Amino acid sequence: MKQKILFNEVVTRDGFQMEPEFVPTANKVALINALSQCGYAKIEVTSFTSAKAIPMLRDAEEVMGRIERVPGVEYTVLVPNLRGAERAMASRPDEFNLVMSTSETHNLANLRMPREHSYAALREVIERYGAQVPINVSLSACFGCPMEGDVPQAEVMQWAQRFADLGVRGLTICDTTGMAHPEQVAQMCDLLHSRFPNLQLTLHFHNTRGMGLANVLAAAQSGIDRFDGSLGGLGGCPYAPGASGNISSEDAIHMLDAMGYDTGMDLGRLLPIARDLPDIVGHAVPGQVAKSGRITDLHPAPPSVAELRKLFS
Question: Is the model's pLDDT at 261 over the cut of 70?
Answer without folding.
Answer: yes
